[in-house]
Amino acid sequence: MAIKFYMTPGSCSTGIHILLETLELPFEAHVLNLPAGQHRAPAYLAINPKGSIPALVLDDGRVLTEFGAIAYCLARQHPRASLLATEPALAAQALALVDFAVGQVHGQGWTRVFTPEAYLPAGLDPAEFPRWREAVQARGRELVQQGLALIDPGLWHRRRRAVLQPVLGRQNGLADAAVLRCPVPADPCPSGGAAGAGRRGLPLRPTPTCLPD
Q1: Are 17 and 202 in contact, with CB atoms under 8 Å apart?
Q2: Cα angle at 101 between 100 and 107, to 5 degrees?
């Protein structure tokens, strides 16, 4: 049974995709269209009742969810790849960075940029939608910039120039996958279904995810 990877291009799940590609693992990539609600479809909820992404179904059928947990498992299964330091304090620093990047930068910032409708108040006058949506997205950009500044004051501008360096050194690539997440899908997110199989489940290109200044 091949590994099955459930993701949405452009989301934090792209970081797990980077790790799978780095490890050269064979896997089936299944793209979920979040705006279409595919993460709430019964078939996916049977795999991951939380309806969250990413999710990874191992070759023995066990299901892993949450970025940090999946990344940790991959790092420990493939120690020679040096995705996570063996020294406990350095490993803890990397895991803390992953938690912050996923929870704050992605979870609070990027979600407002890409899914502002989820933050609109109930009963809002439709005429007010554009103004509120713009305000929510602006707040998301602010949170992303603040988060990246806390991680590394120069990271924001290096991302925009595609000049990327390891955040915690080369023995903590797990953290880089969460923080930098520079490679993005070469093609727009399809409307749903599987994205093909094999190690090269989705094409990647080294282009930074940029926001306006």
Answers
A1: yes
A2: 95
Task: Give the pairing of strands 55-57 and 3-7.
Answer: antiparallel
CA torsion 148→149→154→160, rounded to 10°?
Answer: 40
HEC string of 102-134? Answer: HHHHHHHHHHHHHCHHHHCCCCCCHHHHHHHHH
**Could you give the CA distance from residue 34 to residue 23 in angstroms, rounded to a whole number?**
27
Full set of structural domains in the chain with CATH: 3-84+177-205 (3.40.30.10), 88-169 (no CATH)
Tokens 């997440």 found at:
181
Strands (E) in the chain, as ranges, are 3-7, 27-31, 55-57, 63-65, 184-185, 194-197, 204-205
With a cut of 70, which residues of the chain have pLDDT below it?
A: 153-172, 180-213
Q: What is the pLDDT of residues 31-70, one digit of tens each?
A: 999 878 899 999 999 999 999 999 999 999 999 999 999 9
- DSSP code of residue 35: T
Tokens of 202: 């989705």
**What's the whole-model pTM score?**
0.74
